[in-house]
Design a protein that fits this description.
Blueprint: H1 3-19, E1 33-40, E2 45-52, E3 67-71, H2 80-84, H3 87-91, E4 97-101, H4 119-134, E5 144-149, H5 151-162, E6 169-173, H6 189-199, H7 205-209, H8 212-217, H9 221-226, E7 229-235, H10 241-253, E8 258-263, H11 269-283
């Protein structure tokens, strides 16, 4: 990989340290936010998630709602979006069910080294059907959106590309879009451990199957016609800025419908707080 990847990984460590300084989650959940667990057969353990219901959900007994799945970043958790942003407040301006899955540090991928860490299969095959069964969702492509930040941005776009029949819109905020191609650098053990466990060595089948750039580059014209609309943004001071621009160039080359936004900001919660509010407004154009 390019020398810029080394810079990316070094700065990712710094960003994690900055994120760790964010205010601790309050003991009491915000209004209309609840916690649940899914006993996953694929993962062999209970997987927590948070869910935000529309403010009129309990009074409108027949109405069905579109769902937005919001994925967290590396070293984060399913609690991040509801405690480190104003998402619960923003959600009250819309009529979405919003789900925050737990992705641990698994890069939203079925691990090459840990058989029980099947994060992609868990979300696609267990969590989404569970949400559709338990809540009054619009259980169809035109009622389902997926997005995320950093590691979650990569995961959301990957899911959109691999499962286009499931999502009408896939969004990324400051996405680590080249994740499956990052290689080893001895000084960055914590990040490299998660990458190695998820994808295995360079050249592995898992890396090939989860390389977002390759998935898009190799997509046939027929496959491209089926893809969800892709949204991505990145702050101009973000160390992933160039990586995102490279992906946008690929989308343009393949003539894939998308929207890309650049605005001042770094790889930090104040930026994501503003962008998730924008994304909720955007999502209303793509769901019914």
């Amino acid at each position: 990989m390019k020398e810029s990847i080394k810079v990316f990984l070094f700065l990712l460590v710094l960003s994690v340290a900055i994120a760790a300084q964010a205010p601790a989650a309050a003991a009491k959940l915000p209004v209309d936010v609840s916690e649940a667990k899914l006993v996953s057969k694929l993962m062999g353990r209970s997987m927590p998630y948070r869910i935000i219901l529309p403010k009129n959900y309990n009074s409108s007994k027949q109405k069905r709602y579109p769902v937005i799945y919001l994925l967290h970043g590396l070293f984060g958790s399913n609690t991040n979006w509801t405690t480190l942003t104003k998402l619960p407040s923003y959600a009250q301006e819309h009529e979405f069910i919003i789900v925050n899955p737990e992705g641990e540090n698994g890069w939203y991928t079925d691990s090459a080294s840990k058989p029980a860490d099947r994060f992609e299969s868990y979300i696609i095959k267990e969590l989404i059907p569970e949400i559709d069964a338990k809540y009054r969702t619009i259980a169809a492509r035109n009622g389902r959106v997926i997005a995320g930040l950093s590691m979650g941005g990569y995961g959301a776009l990957k899911f959109g590309v691999k499962y286009p029949e499931m999502f009408s819109l896939a969004g990324s905020f400051s996405g680590a879009l080249g994740a499956a191609t990052y290689t080893s650098i001895p000084a960055l053990d914590a990040i490299l451990k998660s990458i190695g466990e998820a994808y295995g060595p360079m050249g592995s089948e898992t890396r090939k199957l989860n390389d977002l750039f390759a998935l898009v580059r190799d997509a046939s014209p027929e496959k491209i016609k089926t893809l969800p609309f892709i949204y991505l943004d990145c702050g101009t001071e973000d160390f992933l800025f160039q990586n995102n621009r490279e992906f946008v160039e690929l989308l343009r080359e393949k003539k894939i419908p998308h929207e890309y936004r650049e605005r001042p900001g770094g790889h930090a919660w104040p930026y994501w707080d503003g962008q998730v509010a924008e994304f909720l407004r955007l999502a209303e154009r793509f769901v019914k």
